[in-house]
Amino acid sequence: MKLFVKIQQLRKQNGMSQEKLAQLLGVSRQSVSKWESGQSLPEIDKIIQLSNIFEVTTDYLLKDVAEEKCIDILRKEKEKDVLAHHTSFMFKVGFTMFSVGVVAIAVFWILSIVYPTYRVMWDGTLLTGFSGFLILHEVTPVFIFFCVVGTIGLGMMLFEKKKEKVSV
User: When comparing pLDDT for 104 and 71, which is higher?
Assistant: First the structure.
């Protein structure tokens, strides 16, 4: 595919008029029209600006590569961006879950120190310390829930980091 075809195709894909592209490049609309019709070529600094505006490489613009290969390259770049965003999002979710779990466990532990328990149950069981606090105040299921949330979050973080290393 020739440069003039690529310029026109990229401009249309981005929903941009010749006038708008000309403004961004600091040239006249007629210059853009001549580039797109193949009557003239843009200067090298304008090619660099075009690559920045359309987020493609200058190699893509300048090299006469087969259309399928160009589309494949663009598709792969887009997939990498989506994967990076997804990985980043999943890591953040995992980190948040892990943090919530750790903070909740720390709060339970601090509460068990601030409000120590010492109780003998009817069957002679002595409830003291952290486990006594959880049982006496009937918050063991809540504690287990936060442990599970933290563990799942840690698993998500580790999985995303491992996946990131494998894909690089």
Answer: 104
